[in-house]
Design brief:
Elements lengths: L3 E6 L9 E2 H4 L8 H10 L8 E4 L12 E6 L2 H11 L4 H15 L2 H10 L4 H8 L3 H9 L1
Antiparallel strand pairs: 1-3, 1-4, 2-3
Length: about 140
């Protein structure tokens, strides 16, 4: 086994650090009684988005009040954890921003079409994550 990594359990108020355990793939340590006991003691399942894994050397990023458990990883597992925890490239981030722009472009026309087919304004706000006042503003224009 290689370096220790850290399983952490974050509260909902913390930003998500590291990688979701499920995103990394199968880890030998996940089947150990220690990990099962730790998860059980905190009442969470390994698939929870709040259960994260950080590579060795990243323990300084762990919030003081977050629960943590050091776990051993094989060299191959350590590489997968490092890759999953790596920040996205600038190119990837720019692509995501362009996709967001394209998805939100002409949102007003989409709201008008939804209103035309009879979807109530509160439901549109709920589904689209829009401010209900914005939808009301559109209905008046």
């Amino acid at each position: 086994m290689a370096d220790d990594a850290y399983l952490i359990l974050l509260s909902a108020r913390h930003p998500l650090l590291g990688a979701a355990v499920a995103a990394v793939g199968t880890l030998e340590c996940a089947e150990t009684p220690a990990v099962h006991g730790w998860l059980s003691a905190h009442g969470v399942h390994a698939s929870s988005e709040l259960v994260r894994i950080l590579p060795a050397g990243a323990e300084t990023l762990i919030p003081e009040d977050a629960e943590r458990l050091p776990v051993p990883l094989s060299e191959e597992e350590a590489v997968r954890v490092q890759q999953e925890c790596a920040p996205p490239s600038v190119t990837d981030m720019e692509r995501q921003l362009l996709d967001f722009r394209d998805a939100t472009h002409d949102w007003e026309a989409l709201v008008h079409r939804a209103l035309t087919v009879g979807i109530p304004a509160p439901r549109i706000a709920q589904l689209a994550g829009l401010d209900p006042q914005e939808i009301c503003r559109l209905t008046r224009s």
